[in-house]
Amino acid sequence: MKLQGTMKVNKNGHLEIGGCDTVELAKRFGTPLYVIDEALFRQNCRAYYRAFTEEHGVEVIYASKTLSNLAVCHMVEQEGLGLDVVSGGELYTAATARFPMGRVYFHGNNKSTEELRLALEYKVGRIVVDNFYELERLNELAGEAQTRAKIILRLSPGVEAHTHEYIKTGQIDSKFGLVIENGSAMAGVKYCLELPHIELKGFHCHIGSQIFELDSYAHAAETMMDFIHTVYRETDYLAEELNLGGGLGIYYFNGDQPRPVKEYADVMMRALQERAASYDLPVPRVIVEPGRSISGPAGSTLYTVGAIKDIPGIRKYVAVDGGMGDNPRPALYQSKYEAYIANRMLEEVEEKVSIAGKCCESGDMLIWDIELPAPQAGDLLVVASTGAYNYSMSMNYNRLPRPAMVLVSEGKADVIVKREDYTDLIRNDVIPERLRSSVMKLASSR
């Protein structure tokens, strides 16, 4: 397993994160347990701020869909980044954390009326509009509120990034955005310019996630600048802002080769500047939306090993006390992770095993065919790079409570998300009176 951030092996052969012994973390907080390395999270924020904001004047907004809670919102604000939200829930989290609403961008391909009203009420910086229906609805709601909604129009640039089919978003066949190639994007621009309660600030695109090929970003920047020029030529409207999304890949598994943030920034901005110069147009104010590359490497998950099932000549299954409930990505995307036995970091690998979750699904497998020291019941397994899309996609399948999350730094560990218990699972359950009365009758007849 590749050690990242503040990870190190201590004299007891245990893995430490943020100066905290993971064995002690498990004893204190239980497992499964999400562990966030505060220093690494902040380091990743700062890498973006230096490479994009300080060197190129680009606004960096953190994609909170990867990992959102009150503590994360506070860290993001402290590091000088804005916030990208995609639902009323994420927006409410930001507001509760008192995040500056002027630095919040509200995304989503099917925002509800209630969510749009909330965005207008909170006075978010920008609403990223995805389609004609949303344009019409937002114009009506802004009119009712006697304001003009500042928007960025999301476009599909027709750029296919090399990544999993489910996390591609920039191709023509996508549920996101208005397509440039078929004329929908231009029609959307012209419609925006007619609406009395809409203020079009610019355009947005996002080509996908977990991307390593920087040429894809350069191509997207050029395509969007081409469109800005075409729009200016046809309508005399010159976009002030251009949001080029995020999606930079991180290290999950042997073979992944993340690119430096500075290289990403330089490649994308060079392409944009050169294309703008070719049209004798100014470079718009640029925004980028990193998420995974900030939160992903900063997170790890601790599990306790339980049942071990050996099928001679076939496979050895090592079951842990979590699984797809706290990390559905392997089941959804066939995502690969690396892991190690956190209480036996100095021991040599001995055998190939597969890590199974505890949900009643054959597909609940965290890792297939990993080489580890011979696992034993009670061992502490650590899975790395789980900071993005693990907690945020977690669920209560099989009525399993969601894990706690701790933030570790300089030997201190603080709970930032409480562990759910069984009472949380039934908190919103309601028994209709007709069922309650029939149960009472059955009980009295026994």
From TrEMBL:
Family from the record: Belongs to the Orn/Lys/Arg decarboxylase class-II family. LysA subfamily.
Entry binding sites for pyridoxal 5'-phosphate: 247, 289-292, 389
Organism this protein belongs to: Desulforamulus ruminis (strain ATCC 23193 / DSM 2154 / NCIMB 8452 / DL) (Desulfotomaculum ruminis)
Protein's name according to its UniProt entry: Diaminopimelate decarboxylase
EC number: 4.1.1.20
Cofactor(s) this protein requires: pyridoxal 5'-phosphate
Gene symbol of the encoding locus: lysA
GO terms for MF: diaminopimelate decarboxylase activity; pyridoxal phosphate binding
Role, per record: Specifically catalyzes the decarboxylation of meso-diaminopimelate (meso-DAP) to L-lysine.
Subunit description: Homodimer.
InterPro entries per record: Ala_racemase/Decarboxylase_C, DAP_deCOOHase_LysA, De-COase2_N, Orn/DAP/Arg_de-COase, PLP-binding_barrel
